[in-house]
Amino acid sequence: MAVRKSSSTGDQSVRDETTATAVELSPASTARRKRILLVDDDPEIVESMRVALEAMGYEVLIARDGNQGLALADAENPDLVILDMMMPKRSGFLVLERLRQTRKVPVRVIMITANEGSRHKAYAEMLGVDDYIRKPFAMDRLLDSVRRLLES
After folding, report:
1. DSSP per residue over 10-39, as a string?
2. Which residues, given as ranges, of the chain have pLDDT below 50?
3. Backbone angles phi, psi at 31, to 5 degrees
4. Would you call 4 helix, strand, or coil by DSSP?
5. Where are the beta strands (DSSP E) in the chain?
6. How far apart are CA 94 and CA 41, in angstroms?
7. What is the rounded distance in angstroms from the CA atom of residue 42 to the CA atom of residue 34?
8. Is 78 helix (H, G, I), strand (E, B) or coil?
9. How many CA atoms lie within 13 A of 66 on its CB side?
């Protein structure tokens, strides 16, 4: 397969040498943006995370409770889930547990919480959380974790 640039438009073309057909690709179609699912019931926190993550080039999906989070995770197959621990309808722990039980390839999960207890962190780690961040947190702390998990 060969990649060439068209001199008149600057668009990329991919030519499959076996079938001798050319397919035009726009720059956006050459690589899928990483998808992040935010599962949190606090609109202010969700909005601040959404703005920061979209500014970094990520596609952001939003769920307002644990049940919506599971439904979106199943339907949209995100690359990463940022999950609040305390939410209506289904806690972050129950969502994390279900994600770990039902997915053949585990999705990366960052759990965020205002809870100070070390028991909760230990339980989240036992369930397989990739990172655990206590609120309030610096946005840089979250973005560093997102980058690290999506690049590994």
Report:
1. --EEEEETTTTEEEEE-GGGSSPPPEEEEE
2. 1-30
3. -150, 130
4. strand
5. 2-5, 12-16, 21-25, 35-39, 59-63, 80-84, 108-113, 131-134
6. 15
7. 23
8. coil
9. 17
Place of tokens 């962190």: 121
Tell me the per-residue pLDDT of 100-122, one tens digit each, with 9 for 90 and over: 998 888 899 999 999 888 899 99
Write 118-125 long-range contacts (CB < 8 A, 24+).
Answer: 120/85, 123/93, 124/85, 124/92, 124/93, 124/96
CB 57 within 8 A of CB 50: no
Say whether 53 sits in a helix, a strand or coil. helix
Rounded Cα gap, residues 108 and 94, in angstroms: 16
Q: How far apart are CA 8 and CA 90, in angstroms?
A: 55
Q: How many Cβ atoms from other residues are within 10 Å of residue 103's Cβ?
A: 12
The residues with which 13 forms a beta bridge, in sequence order, are 4, 24
| Residue with tokens 């997102």, as numbered in its chain | 146
Asked if 65 and 84 touch (Cβ cutoff 8 Å), the reply is no
* The pLDDT value given to residue 21: 35
Q: Read off φ and ψ for residue 90, nearest 5 degrees.
A: -160, 125
Model-level pTM?
A: 0.78
Segments of 93-136 assigned E as strands: 108-113, 131-134
Question: Is residue 24 a contact partner of residue 30, using CB atoms and an 8 Å limit?
Answer: no
